[in-house]
Amino acid sequence: MLDFYEYAKDRIQGKAPKGARRSPDWRKVRGVHMAAHPDCEVCGRTKTKLRTIECHHILSFHLFPDLELEPKNLVSLCRRCHL
Questions:
Q1: Pick from 64, 76, 62: nearest CA to 29
Q2: pLDDT one digit per residue (tens) for the chain, 83 residues
Q3: Which of 4, 33, 52, 66 counts the most CB atoms within 10 A of its CB?
């Protein structure tokens, strides 16, 4: 029962299912995207010591794992815009 609870909690929070692994190419694709799009694509904020910009999937990795490495499915967002 606990395993189902953890699985359901992860799904609700938008996390990939337990055991789902990133492609070995994910770091490279993420790096290329962040180099090309270093600022938040919603508000235009830039990275500072107190503000980070992260690479996110538009269509969630746990629902569409086949789009994990698709550049058109990636977006750079600051924490404020990631809500």
A1: 76
A2: 556 777 676 666 666 665 677 899 999 999 999 999 999 999 998 887 777 899 999 998 878 888 999 999 999 999 889 87
A3: 33
This prediction has a pTM of: 0.72
Tell me how far apart the terminal alpha carbons of the chain are, to the nearest angstrom: 30
> Would you call 76 exposed, middle or buried from its count of C-beta atoms within 10 A (0-12, 13-18, 19+)?
buried
Which amino acid is located at 51 in the chain? R
The two three-digit tokens of residue 4, written as one number? 């189902």
CB 11 within 8 A of CB 63: no
